[in-house]
Amino acid sequence: MKHCRTALSFHRGGTHTTTPTQGLPSAHQNDGPSRKRAMSTLNQHNNMCHSNLIFIILFIFNDYVTGDISTSLALSKLNSGGSFFAGPYLDGTGVSNVTTQIGTHAYLPCKVKQLGNKSVSWVRVRDDHILTVDRMTFIADERFQSFYVENSGVWTLQIKYVQARDAGIYECQVSTEPKISARVHLHVVVPRTELIGDSDRYVKAGSAVILRCVVRGALEPPSYIIWYHGTQQIFTENRRGWKTQLERGAPDLDGDIHSTIGSLIIESTRKKDSGNYSCSPSNSPPITVSLHVINGESSASAVTSSAGSLFDVYQWLSRGTSIFYCSIGHLLCYSFWLSTLS
């Protein structure tokens, strides 16, 4: 920076302007060719100095507007290596928002240049808890860890198996005086599992039924959905007429987030198929539906059939002392007297 003073010097309270020949060797001030070469060199030097000055002004202005980095830290002088920073500084191109899904791993980056012998700490802002200092962890929760990629300048806070309570702001701090820091906001997406249809399903023995669940609000679709009958996992290859389906990419109300629909299909139900069925996705909580299989000639404990049946939707109506069973598709009703029903 001191070499720029030959062509351009400035100080607090005013400016000082030099003449075009100031800084030239006196023996060449009146020598035509030598003077031209020297003037050309001086003009190039002036242009470089002006570029440096413009960069400095723009940097200070950007710092003032964004407030991300302390000016006193990053801009003390131009060193001999050509860097505009005398000590550690934060790379302003880093990520300020990270979105991850519950149960997955989150990675919060912090890029520090020219760190030298300073330390990098990660702090959870909501309770000012120091999580890590350099590669050391200062919290009992082993899910938190800081690691550094050599020659990258990036210090990353890793949070394993993210929980909903991990959402919030985390601060990367460099132990300079004054301290410099950058904040990263962690957003945690929590998928939800819902039933398609009622939580109690009634079907007549021998009819087909489809039990469906849907996973909504997930950044990534579940890798699998397991169905359980009670506590026993269902293996469809061992059950004739049973099969499962997984439909990914169904548009959701959230727009860019997609749903996944899981289906359990039973082509011909039997009385022993009654019970609780659980839909258990890999990335969201399970949900349960109760299936009631009715023997038509001996029981009418249910009054409505499964809306997810492959066949007609049935409706039970109670009138007086009898119950009418109606097949909407065929407009045909059968009357069962209450005295004949168990």
UniProtKB/TrEMBL annotation:
Comp. bias (Polar residues): 15-32
InterPro entries assigned: Ig-like_dom, Ig-like_dom_sf, Ig-like_fold, Ig_I-set, Ig_sub, Ig_sub2, Zig-8
Domain Ig-like: 88-185, 191-290
Domain of life according to the entry: Eukaryota
SMART domains: IG (SM00409), IGc2 (SM00408)
PANTHER family: DEFECTIVE PROBOSCIS EXTENSION RESPONSE 11, ISOFORM B-RELATED (PTHR23279:SF21), DEFECTIVE PROBOSCIS EXTENSION RESPONSE DPR -RELATED (PTHR23279)
Stated name of the protein: Ig-like domain-containing protein
